């Protein structure tokens, strides 16, 4: 009644219906009366409001549907790259601190620096910054102890003992500013932006420049990946290309795919792509039978990583400079929420859990975070 009395003191004559609504005691009595005389109708209204909230929470990524928890034991530092194979994360890399290893007992050995050089300065105004800028990581699926990393401004390094010691590979033969890396057996591929694609078929002893020959153009490349069958893909400003035959391969363009920044492989021969150049702001599903699916445009958000669902070819996951999303091949998206206090998603992967479910893991500026998927 206080609000009503204050308005009356100002000589404001309110409609009778509005006066009633400004009286909390009357509202409370009305609700009690409704609950006593028409309980089913009152319950239905409450259920409708709850259903609307839960629906919005599920779609927009509000609580209680979003809970990103820190991955136990992982370094709570800025992480920009990670390597996952055989259903687990093996290594994570930071642009500031180097490399961390996931051990068999689920503990973490943080920042394995022995033999890794100091990378380029993280900040222009701090030329003496002692950083190890790990741009990309790739481990051999059959032997996770054999791991390769690209160190910003220093090129490619290999460890045969799970990161305890390192040796440089391809010094003087491959660009020091390479950005993307993948390994399949003894074959190593490196994408070096404007300098193109480089490959080795003898575990890094000798190298060839693959761009500008055998059908692969010499334009900018930012992504290189092997699929599960060992077929190489390289993507960049000129689109996506697939290698045919044996190293150094004949290359063919994947029809209908424009400039591409990221590629991920899913079941049923699906490809999940991040489109755009030089930064990607769109994500899409590609199937050789139907071409591109529905394109999702994230506007000012930059797509930073993709993750496939091995059980559902119609669903994939996208990390952006803001948060994580679930997408389908028809072009629908659902927000999965943001880890508070972080600067978006740097890396994304989907891992199995012991109970048969899945957990989505993202690399952030505060370490690794995970959430269980329903």
What this model shows, in words?
This protein is mainly beta and 374 residues long. The protein has two domains: 2-60, no CATH class; 73-280 and 288-302, YVTN repeat-like/Quinoprotein amine dehydrogenase (Methylamine Dehydrogenase, Chain H). 13% of the residues lie in helices and 39% in strands. The protein is built from four helices and 29 strands. It has helices spanning 2-9, 16-21, 24-37, 39-60; strands at 69-70, 81-85, 88-94, 98-102, 108-109, 134-140, 143-151, 155-159, 167-169, 180-184, 187-191, 197-200, 208-209, 221-226, 232-236, 239-244, 250-253, 260-265, 270-275, 282-287, 291-292, 296-297, 303-308, 315-320, 324-328, 333-337, 347-352, 358-364, 367-373. The strands form seven sheets. Strands 18, 19, 20, 21 and 22 form a five-stranded antiparallel β-sheet that branches. Strands 1-29-28-27 form a four-stranded antiparallel β-sheet, with no helix packed on it. Strands 2-3-4-5 form a four-stranded antiparallel β-sheet, with no helix packed on it. Strand 4 and strand 5 form a beta hairpin. The longest helix has 22 residues, at 39-60.
């Amino acid at each position: 009644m206080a609000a009503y009395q204050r308005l009356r003191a100002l000589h404001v004559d309110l409609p009778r219906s509005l006066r009633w609504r400004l009286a909390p005691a009357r509202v409370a009595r009305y609700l009690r009366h409704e609950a006593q005389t028409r309980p089913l109708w009152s319950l239905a209204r409450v259920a409708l409001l709850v259903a609307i909230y839960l629906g919005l929470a599920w779609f927009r990524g509000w609580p209680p549907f979003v809970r990103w928890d820190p991955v136990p034991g992982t370094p709570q530092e800025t992480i920009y790259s990670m390597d996952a194979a055989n259903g687990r994360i093996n290594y994570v890399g930071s642009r500031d601190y180097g490399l961390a290893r996931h051990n068999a007992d689920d503990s973490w050995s943080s920042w394995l620096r022995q033999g890794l050089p100091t990378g380029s300065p993280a900040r222009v105004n701090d030329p003496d910054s002692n950083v190890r800028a790990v741009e990309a990581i790739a481990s051999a699926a059959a032997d996770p102890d054999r791991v390769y990393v690209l160190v910003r401004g220093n090129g490619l390094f290999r460890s045969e003992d799970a990161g305890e010691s390192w040796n440089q590979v391809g010094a003087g033969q491959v660009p020091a500013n390479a950005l993307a890396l993948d390994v399949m057996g003894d074959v190593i591929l490196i994408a070096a932006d404007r300098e193109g694609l480089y490959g080795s078929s003898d575990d890094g002893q000798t190298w060839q420049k693959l761009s500008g020959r055998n059908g692969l153009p010499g334009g900018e490349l930012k992504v290189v990946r092997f699929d599960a069958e060992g077929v190489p893909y390289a993507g960049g400003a000129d689109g996506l290309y697939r290698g045919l035959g044996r190293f150094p391969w004949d290359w063919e363009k994947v029809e209908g795919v424009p400039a591409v920044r990221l590629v991920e492989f899913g079941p049923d021969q699906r490809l999940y792509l991040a489109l755009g150049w030089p930064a990607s702001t769109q994500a899409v599903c590609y199937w050789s039978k139907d071409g591109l699916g529905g394109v999702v445009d994230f506007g000012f958000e930059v797509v930073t990583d993709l993750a496939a669902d091995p059980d559902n070819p119609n669903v994939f996951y996208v990390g952006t400079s803001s948060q994580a999303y679930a997408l389908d091949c028809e072009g629908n998206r659902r927000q999965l929420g943001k880890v508070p206090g972080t600067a978006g998603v740097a890396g994304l992967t989907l891992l199995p859990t012991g109970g048969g479910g899945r957990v989505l893991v993202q690399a952030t500026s505060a370490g690794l975070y995970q959430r269980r998927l329903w």
